Batch of 2 targets.
Target 1
Amino acid sequence: MFQIGKAFKVKVEISPNMIGFGQATVIDAQRSKIYLQVKTEKKEKVVLPKGSHIWFVASDTSLPFKGWWTTTVQSSRTIHNKQTLECNRPIFESVRQKRKAKRAIYQCPIELAGKKWAELPEFFSHNISKSGIRIETTGDYANAFATQSKIELTIKSKFGPIQTKASIIQARYNWLANKTIVGLEFISLSEESQDKLDQLLQFLDNKAIKSLPKTSKDSLLSNWLKK
């Protein structure tokens, strides 16, 4: 699959708390090694330190990975007069669903409580569930969000403000989109905020069902009646 000359979309570990996206081209391949050139969307070559992880993304429907092919950078090396990253032969890692609840796409302003966040640009939600939310903003601020630390925020939803305390699960900078993306898990909501969150999720669920083709709606109704 990893033939010489083939290009793949990749997710790369730039630093321990920073993930980016780009394109990797196979310059050479051996039994236990593969040599890659990694570039950003702006066609800038990326040099990654030893130990950095690279995940290959299936952008071709003929390659339905249903998981990740991943490799680790061992060193840099010149191959065919090109500077490359020498990596281990990619191995396959199956994807397992780890989320506690189904997430729905929803965008609204997010207010972070505390002086620490006053200098940052405004955040917006990207998706939300009963157990957590993903928020994002323009620019690189991933280092401001320490994993497992706590944060208080207000979700300015169409059903009113939802105030919550959350734990930071991950924070990363996507250099191609120039966005900081933060994953949060709810750890404390008042009864009022929980009611508003439930209303919002029910609204989003109904909206998703209405957008389905009629045959899909009938199938959902049939499955519900069988319960």
Target 2
Amino acid sequence: MNINVVYIISQIVTVIYYGFLCASFLIKERDKILFTNFLAHFGQAIAMGLLGGYTGACMSIVMMLRDLVFYITEKMKKSGKNVDQRIDSIVFVFSIIVIIAFTIFTYNGIFSLLSVVATLTSTIAVWQKNTKVYRWLGFIGGILWLMYEIYIFSIMGIILELTLITSTVIGNIKNK
């Protein structure tokens, strides 16, 4: 591993996106969780791309777009607008299809699949409406992302994923 300017930038971006991820597990309202996740996954895509973790970067883009669509529909529902109830299911299925397509094109060995399984887990978590289930699935996804951070050798990612896992546990206890 060569520590250069690109690596240092990736680690700075990693710190920022993990701040958003930690915050998301402490929020109760679904729309705020989704917006916070959108910001986090934007940073995550950049950081993983800089580290050469292209499968992880692509998975982050899927999560970012998925969260944005869910956020928009959630805001529309809150404002009283009529939203087709099937939209969440359509986004869920479309996310799975895109995840599979990106995986085919970015596969880089068995460890690159850790980000894929983590993304599938988070997609299931965000798709359903129960924030408690969201936090518990986030814990499982966190373990998978931790292993992926080790695989791409993101030192700050490793440290901060451990922090996020701790934040998830706190969020689960706090928001029983």
